[in-house]
Design a protein that fits this description.
With 211 residues, this protein is α/β, with parallel strands linked by helices. The protein has helices at 2-22, 28-52, 56-67, 96-102, 139-146, 182-187, 194-198, and strands spanning 71-72, 83-89, 106-107, 110-117, 128-131, 152-155, 167-172, 175-181, 191-192, 202-205, 208-210.
Length: 211
């Protein structure tokens, strides 16, 4: 059943990627993609919660995989070598779920590698860095160390985006949603797709919150 869920997310993103790529040849396609993506993502989340009853870890793992497809990294910190590194810092809440979610998948033509790390000093090669709730007491230190690093920081630590994280998971009516700190992303030289921003529960820009 979980395999079916994962395949559904991949199928939807595959279609959307084709539409978004065509945007480079004309703006009309993006107007079609935007509402489609918003509806698809919201319905997927609803379907996941109502039909297959996935765990929070399964939903968050799917989000982590998806986020990487809607971020443009700076040239000097984009996926390098043969792998796209998705890192987990601290106590791993996913277990084998994250590995299963990204198994055989690629981003920017590079195979996704899940890497578990225990020190922020090991995060330099990470493209996406999930900061576990176990790291709450040293969150400020971690975010300071990763600021301007070209790493997409993600966490479910409360008020993560207010503290300077880029994407924070939040619960809304028993569904997993996410908030975005666009200023933090820009400070780390990351460009977030407008489609990702449109389906975020909240977008922070400098000292103000949109949505």
């Amino acid at each position: 059943m979980i395999r079916t869920v994962i395949q559904s997310w991949r199928w939807g993103l595959g279609i959307l990627a084709s539409v978004l790529l065509s945007h480079r040849r004309g703006r009309r396609s993006i107007s079609v993609a935007a509402p489609w993506f918003a509806v698809w993502l919201c319905l997927s989340a609803t379907s996941l919660s109502q039909q297959v009853h996935p765990t929070e870890s399964q939903v968050k793992a799917a989000y982590l995989f998806n986020f990487g497809k809607f971020v443009q990294w700076p040239i000097d910190h984009g996926p390098r070598g043969d792998s796209f590194e998705l890192c987990v810092l601290g106590q791993d809440p996913f277990g084998p779920v994250l590995d299963a979610t990204v198994a055989g998948e690629s981003i920017s033509a590079r195979k996704i590698a899940v890497v578990r790390i225990s020190k922020v000093s090991e995060a330099a090669p990470c493209n996406v860095l999930y900061i576990s709730g176990s790291e709450g007491s040293r969150l400020g230190q971690i975010l300071e160390a990763t600021r301007h690093s070209g790493t997409l920081t993600v966490s479910d630590i409360p008020h993560f985006v207010e503290h300077g994280g880029i994407i924070g998971f939040v619960k809304q009516q028993d569904r997993i949603r996410f908030e975005v700190n666009r200023s933090a992303a820009e400070g780390s030289h990351l460009t977030l797709s407008s489609e990702l921003l449109k389906v975020a529960l909240r977008v922070m820009n400098k000292d103000t919150a949109e949505k």
